[in-house]
């Protein structure tokens, strides 16, 4: 396992150091979609099979007794490493290219980013999981804060309601007592007191 963690660390550091080395030949969106499509199915047996197929290292003689982690998380980490390594490079000649070459080739800089690394991929995954939670309909067993956050999120993305409501509510708040310079027609400073307006809003 120590070896695997070393590779992971090298790859994370390498991908941070390797910002800007990305190939832009293929459409980044396509390569990004391909990257997710290539991820193997979520069953442990499938993952193990995939690792055995891709890994150039000989499998341990007896998996059951070997001191090796076979949880799904460990297998996912192994797969991520296998998908990052460029095995056609000799690690003694170019360790960076060996440990991270394939990751760099498979993860071009998305058009919306000026940098891209393992950390950005993780952030994207966390955002997707969070969005999945927020868009799951409210369940009776949800905790109250979860219900509230789901409701707030649903309201935030309800563009139809936002459009139909318009700015009436905000303008109502801003025009209390003296109005607001930028939005009140024929506004005059007389009688306007910023503190009063802010306090009442
Ligand atoms: C792996 O390294 C070889 C030799 O440097 C290079 O020709 C090849 O394009 C690399 N493959 C990937 C996927 O980066």
From TrEMBL:
Residues 1-18 form the signal peptide. Keywords: Signal. Residues 91-199 form the Peptidase M13 N-terminal domain. GO terms for cellular component: plasma membrane. It comes from Allacma fusca. Belongs to the peptidase M13 family. Its main location: membrane. This is Peptidase M13 N-terminal domain-containing protein. The keyword Nuclease does not apply. It comes from the Eukaryota. It is a single-pass type II membrane protein. The keyword Magnesium does not apply. GO terms for biological process: protein processing. It is found in: Cell membrane. GO terms for molecular function: metalloendopeptidase activity.
């Amino acid at each position: 396992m120590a070896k695997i963690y070393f590779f992971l660390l090298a790859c994370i550091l390498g991908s941070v150091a390797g910002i800007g080395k990305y190939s832009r030949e293929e459409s980044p969106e396509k390569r990004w979609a391909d990257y997710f499509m290539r991820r193997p199915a979520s069953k442990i047996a499938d993952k193990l099979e995939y690792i055995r197929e891709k890994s150039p290292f000989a499998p341990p003689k007896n998996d059951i007794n070997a001191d090796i982690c076979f949880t799904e998380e460990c297998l996912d980490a192994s797969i991520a490493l296998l998908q990052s390594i460029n095995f056609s490079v000799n690690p003694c000649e170019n360790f960076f290219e060996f440990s991270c070459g394939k990751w760099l080739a498979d993860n071009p800089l998305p058009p919306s980013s000026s940098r891209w690394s393992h950390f950005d991929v993780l952030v994207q995954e966390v955002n997707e999981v969070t969005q999945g939670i927020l868009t799951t309909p409210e369940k009776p067993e949800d905790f109250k804060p979860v219900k509230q956050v789901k409701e707030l999120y649903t309201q935030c993305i309800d563009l139809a309601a936002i459009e139909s409501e318009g700015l009436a509510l905000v303008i109502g708040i801003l025009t209390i007592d003296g109005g607001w310079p930028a939005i009140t027609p024929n506004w005059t400073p007389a009688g306007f007191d910023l503190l009063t307006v802010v306090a009442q809003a």
